[in-house]
Design brief:
This protein is mainly beta. The protein has one domain. The protein has 3 helices and 11 strands. Strand 3 and strand 4 form a beta hairpin. About 25% of the residues are buried.
Length: about 190
């Protein structure tokens, strides 16, 4: 059952050249699912870093909140998806690691790893999020005003220190979009 269609559901803030083309939130018996389609071109500085073998990290996070008039909004559920893109020069292939925990250089931990032949293919995979469970049925409550906040960004804090210094204040390394979807009008379904 479709809960909300994110097109026009709220203001979207964008960084360099990122657009949230579609955002859907679906309520199912076992929880709440989010699907999103993003559109953006990587800036030249980011592509150059990738070509040189520097891994670039992206983070998608979703938060389900219940509005309260007397205090801060109550967070009902919060999930993150971390994505790491890296070029493998020996195999001339692109690697995408996806995890629900931050991906650190000391070890990949538990990640889903996929390989692609081109940068365009790996970016198409990053720009498409399909049926991501953002809340279980037990975490959702009936009644009250509820909303989902979705955010997608390039995480420059995961870059090597020398790139972080150069990237600080550079708009090429600022890619982000955020949108809030109101679930209240669909609460009765």
């Amino acid at each position: 059952m479709l809960c909300a269609l994110g097109l026009g559901a709220g203001p979207a803030r964008a960084g360099a050249s990122i657009e949230l083309a579609e955002l859907r939130v679906e309520r199912a018996d076992d929880g709440l699912y989010l699907s999103a389609r993003l559109r953006f071109e990587l800036p030249a500085a980011v592509e150059d870093a990738l070509d040189k073998g520097i891994a670039v990290h992206f983070v998608a996070d979703a938060e389900v909140v219940r509005d309260r008039w007397y205090w801060y909004d109550r967070q009902m559920a919060s999930v993150q998806r971390y994505m790491r893109v890296a070029y493998q020069p020996l195999t001339r292939r692109w690697r995408l690691n996806t995890s629900s925990e931050p991906i650190v250089s000391s070890g990949l931990g538990v990640t889903l790893t996929q390989h692609y032949d081109s940068l365009a293919e790996v970016m198409a995979a990053i720009q498409r999020i399909t049926r991501w469970r953002i809340a279980t049925a037990a975490e959702l409550e009936e009644g009250g005003r509820q909303s989902v906040r979705f955010r997608f960004r390039l995480d420059a804090s995961q870059l090597p220190r020398t790139f972080q210094i150069g990237a600080f204040g550079d708009s090429d390394w600022v890619l982000s979009v955020e949108r809030r979807v109101d679930l209240t009008q669909e609460g009765g379904r």
